[in-house]
Design brief:
20% helix, alpha+beta, 1 helix, 66 residues, two-stranded parallel ribbon, single chain
């Protein structure tokens, strides 16, 4: 019998929702989190330890970041 993979990975989700060029926000951040949690739950070597969300913040304008 093949030895099972005994490695275990502590896993975090990073979901990011950006504002498109036209300024309209997408409703997909919940979908991203849902699909990532589903993926993690199907892989026994992964355990979810944190979920980080970047809801429309920019990575190019640091004046807004506080």
């Amino acid at each position: 019998m093949k030895e099972m993979n005994k490695l275990h990975y502590r896993t975090a989700i990073y979901a990011r929702l950006s504002i498109e060029d036209n300024g309209i926000r997408s409703n997909s951040i919940e979908d991203q989190i849902y699909f990532l949690k589903k993926y993690i739950s199907r892989h026994i070597q992964l355990s979810l330890v944190a979920c980080y969300c970047d809801n429309g913040k920019t990575g190019t304008n640091f004046v807004e970041v506080r």
